[in-house]
């Protein structure tokens, strides 16, 4: 899935970043500082179009242990507006849930869905999140994720698999626990829905010392890029 997202983003300028924001008045001013801080934490927002994801998902289905279900038999018709699926891959809770709460509150519940992959055993409820939008959003099939390891990719795939069960989900946004919305819901919805492209956060980090020569020649040094959640 990760490779797919990269491939479908070909043609997108490498430095292009998509960050989402919520602005609804001056009381958000202090939040803006927080937002800037969070953005500097290199938040990744991957906006993936259904068509590329879904078709490659089907073609890759056989090679994955987690996608044994024959999706082609599932009806892809749905009623109501198309939805954006917000896929949160987090350590435990959603640290910036109060910002997301405002974002979703000003949105249209018929136009989005939320899926959360959190640590096995962790439950999002009144005691662990300030936003009721996150109640009952955790996917049931979760794994122990180690940051920087391929279990992260596995977890993203589990999130996508859960979201693909609802044919109304037409766009998929991969989010980490340091991601924040920088635009309001309607702006994001319209922007993402009209786009036929996937967006991948990928940039050249000149200070990056993470390239391992053992990855050559499959991944040559000049092709190595940094992304916030995943390195390509
Ligand atoms: C959302 O943001 C856009 C662009 O910033 C603005 O034009 C629009 O009025 C906002 N919509 C709502 C519902 O706040």
UniProtKB/TrEMBL annotation:
Report the transmembrane regions from the record: 33-53
Q: Which InterPro entries match?
A: BC10-like (IPR044174), Glyco_trans_14 (IPR003406)
Q: Where found in the cell?
A: Membrane
What's the protein's topology in the membrane?
A: Single-pass type II membrane protein
Q: Which UniProt keywords apply?
A: Glycoprotein, Glycosyltransferase, Membrane, Transferase, Transmembrane, Transmembrane helix
Fetch the Pfam families from UniProt: Branch
Where does this protein chiefly localize? membrane
Q: Which GO terms describe its molecular function?
A: glycosyltransferase activity
Q: Record keywords: Cell division included?
A: no
Gene Ontology CC: one annotated term: membrane
Q: What is this protein called?
A: Glycosyltransferase BC10 isoform X2
């Amino acid at each position: 899935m990760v490779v797919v997202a990269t491939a479908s983003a070909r043609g997108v300028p490498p430095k292009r970043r998509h960050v989402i924001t919520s602005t609804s008045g001056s009381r958000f001013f202090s939040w803006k500082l927080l937002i800037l801080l969070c953005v500097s934490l290199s938040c990744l927002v991957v906006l993936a179009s259904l068509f590329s994801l879904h078709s490659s998902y089907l073609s890759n289905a056989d090679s994955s242990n987690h996608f044994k279900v024959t999706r082609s038999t599932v009806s892809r018709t749905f009623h109501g507006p198309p939805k954006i699926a917000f896929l949160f891959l987090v350590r435990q809770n959603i640290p910036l849930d109060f910002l997301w709460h405002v974002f979703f509150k000003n949105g249209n519940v018929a136009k989005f869905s939320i899926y959360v992959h959190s640590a096995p055993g962790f439950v999002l409820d009144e005691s662990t999140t300030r936003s009721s939008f996150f109640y009952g959003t955790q996917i049931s099939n979760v794994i122990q994720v180690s940051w920087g390891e391929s279990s992260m990719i596995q977890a993203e795939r589990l999130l996508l698999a859960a979201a693909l069960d609802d044919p109304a989900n037409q766009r998929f946004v991969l989010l980490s626990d340091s991601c924040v919305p920088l635009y309001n819901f309607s702006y994001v919805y319209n922007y993402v829905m009209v786009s036929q492209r996937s967006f991948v956060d990928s940039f050249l980090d000149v200070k990056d010392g993470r390239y391992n020569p053992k990855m050559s020649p499959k991944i040559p040094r000049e092709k190595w890029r940094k992304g916030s959640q995943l390195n390509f």
